[in-house]
Design a protein that fits this description.
Number of helices: 5
CATH topology of one domain: Arc Repressor Mutant, subunit A
Helix content: 40-55%
Radius of gyration: 22 Å
Strand content: under 5%
Largest sheet: none
């Protein structure tokens, strides 16, 4: 492994990449990270490769070691730096509410299809 002490990252990590890197350092598996952040395992693998490339390393262990030496794991997470929408959005709730009203209307006594009721 190369010694990276004192070498700055040419392309800084995004907030999402730092978030994933911190979870890697905490011992989360890629599948656990995917579940925690509502991502697919393939997306986590993509981010891992980007993190390794930006840090100039080839493995999870090297990435964690380099991040620790650079103090990247000490800073407070800033998730606003990634370009993904916030995890809590009202769209599904509104959609669920509208589906709930539709489902209730299907259960009414006016239904003419005996199979659906």
């Amino acid at each position: 492994m190369n010694d990276f002490d004192g070498q700055p990252i040419l392309d800084p990590l995004t907030g999402r990449e730092l978030e994933i890197l911190r979870l890697l350092a905490q011992g989360y598996s890629p599948r656990e990270i995917a579940q925690e952040l509502y991502l697919t395992p393939g997306t986590v693998k993509f981010y891992n490769q980007r993190i390794y490339g930006r840090l100039g390393v080839n493995s999870r262990t090297q990435a964690i070691t380099r991040a620790q030496k650079m103090g990247l794991l000490d800073a407070k997470p800033d998730t606003s730096a990634h370009d993904l929408p916030p995890q809590n959005t009202t769209f599904p709730l509104r959609r669920l509410a509208s589906l709930g009203a539709s489902a209730k209307s299907l259960k009414s006594d006016d239904c003419c299809n005996p199979i659906a009721c």
